[in-house]
Amino acid sequence: MYANKLPRIVGLTILGISFVISLGSEMGLLTIVEGIRRNIAILVLILLASFITIPLRLSGYLEKIVSLMTMLRSNLDRAFFCLLSILFVLAPILNVGAIRVTQDLVKDIDFKPKFLTKAYVNGYLSAIVWSPYFATVAIVLYLFEVNLNSYILIGLTFGIIQIIIGYLLFHFHRGEVSVDEVAVTVEPSEDIRNLYWVTGKLFLIILVGIGLLIFLEYITPLSMLLLVSISAVVIPLSFGVLTGQMKQTLSEMKHHISNLNRSCNEIVLFLSAGILGSALENTVFSEALDTLFLAIAQISTLLFGITVILIVIFFTVIGVHQIIIVPLLITQVNPEIIGISPLALAFVFILAWGVSVALSPISATNLLVSNMLKAKWWQVGFKWNGAYVLTSTFVGLTIFIVIQLLTI
User: What's the CA gap between 123 and 88, in Å, rounded?
Assistant: First the structure.
């Protein structure tokens, strides 16, 4: 009822197709129930993940970051690397909201749109490949039944490599962008080393928290999705108790709950895609897709990875959201049949999702950046970040092949 017109039409269309397919399957309408059951845990995570931002907002870390960026405004290289680092730290918690928060931090510094676009996309994509609070990682690992402790070092390493790629590409082409210093309303009030330490400490806190999740997944029978969902609620409440800000914390949580209807578009698309994926299992389509992927995988593992990425990019560029096409493809891929390990498959689908986020005209990231900086979506995705996306894809495919060789 609360979804926008287009997601509602798309969702109802997908649901109608799923019903028709289900009626001709062995399980009948039970496939609809299975499609919902399989994805409800991921949906809970998507809705609760925003709670984890509450301690960050109440702890004063954002004010520290404002001072740091103010100090670095005259040094493009250091400012760009700092923006990358800030997004790498904030995005695992704030998701796409990290871009809006960062824009608020630097809005009084007249950075050029091209400079900010490169920093925002590069920094955000470096976090999307490793954080369990992202739907990207949570959905793909869950569907392939891959534990986070098996993937996290791979994803985190690739994220750091992406930061390095983004910085080096900017460094060697920094003559193409410039910054005009203007009057800044926020004056730095602290030593820059202390501000670096505060930013680094925040990153360490995030890593310790994720490390604790991995440990709990290892010693308990609980799934990572459940652990992350629980932590999204427990951490803010613990913060409120320990800092004496329980009243403010509860107020923030109520505010987040009241805004859940803003996620209706994503909920409709995600659940309808999950139902369609469940309905398509054991159908002619599923068998044909398995046969296609098997034939490509037998030719070359690299060609299989490229095919997955191109398929996801094609559908997202023409307007199909990643949350529809990626789970739909995954539910039709059988690792045992095509001969590629679940860990390698999980990585290449996460890579494909990340690449398509930068290039898709309907991705929240592309829409947010283009609207904030008054730029065209194709400028954000292809013109200004094309080299970064291409380089990251090449490196990612190399890592994909290495994972497959090591897990045969």
Answer: 5
